Amino acid sequence: MKVAIPSNAPGGLEATISPHFGRCDAFTIVEIKDGKVISASTIDNRGTHFGFDKTPAEILASSGVDAILTQGMGPKAMQLFAQ
After folding, report:
1. Are residues 26 and 42 in contact, defined by beta-carbon separation less than 8 angstroms?
2. How far, CA to CA in Å, does 72 sit from each of 21, 32, 36, 63?
3. Are 51 and 59 in contact (CB under 8 A)?
């Protein structure tokens, strides 16, 4: 299972969680297998809030993310993930 966590720069396991999903600096992607973290990586947030063409939801969906751990998310992002 891949879990995305909106993170402050530079991302990674030691980064603080960003309070705003769509405007985070990066997404920390944690892969979990059998209840253990087997890998961690980051994806820069090049979403529409920063003038790019994809939404953060589209970025994560195309990266194979299964779940998101966040403090808050707007209704548009929630709707995109539900699809």
Report:
1. yes
2. 6, 22, 25, 21
3. no
CA distance 1 to 48: 26
Tell me what pLDDT residue 22 has: 86
Q: CB of 43 within 8 A of CB of 54?
A: no
Tally of CB atoms within 10 A around 26: 22
Angle at 22 between CA 19 and CA 23, to 5 degrees: 70
Q: What is the pLDDT of residues 47-68, one digit of tens each?
A: 777 787 888 888 898 999 999 9
Supply the pTM of this predicted model. Answer: 0.86
Looking at residue 8, its pLDDT comes to 96
